[in-house]
Amino acid sequence: TAAVLQQGRSGEAEPMSARLAGAVRSGRHPALGARARWVRATTLLRTGQPERSLAGLREAAALFARAGETEYVGVVRLLAADAERTAGDRTAALRGLHLALAVLRGRRGSVWLHNALYLCTRAVADEFPRAAGRVQDEGIVAAAATGLLGSVVEARLARGRLAVSAGHEARADRELHEAE
Fold first, then answer.
1. What CA–CA distance (Å, rounded) separates 171 from 180?
2. How far apart (Å, rounded) are the C-alpha atoms in residues 145 and 148?
3. pLDDT tens-digit profile of 125-172?
């Protein structure tokens, strides 16, 4: 369904994802059922239906938990936080980010941890710049643990943006230099 969505054929993607989610026997294959619900929920989110996507993400989290797929529990909680943000419920989105981080912090090399920390930094930067800075410090460590250079650069640039917004131009320059 992702390819269909990328081609701009959202009218086809939604029924396709519904058929996929309905075809999997989650009782026998909870991880596969969770993945199918994740695909369905992501399709709904990308087609502008964040409220409808939340139910599927919650089901996916429960199925991943049953299958022992801890990291993916955190991933779908992260996606649910994004759905809450898209739906306009900032408080629920922040709560969802907290829940996702609670799971993903145990997965130091996870690119999803890096993504969650990045989203958390962006979510709190305006109102809580000091907290955002601390989260982004952790984000740089998490990005380095992924072994992905692009993630490290992204994390450093984010910390540089925070420094600029706080009026710390010298710190921002250091971050930009480190990102290079």
1. 14
2. 8
3. 877 877 888 888 888 888 899 888 888 888 888 888 888 887 888 888
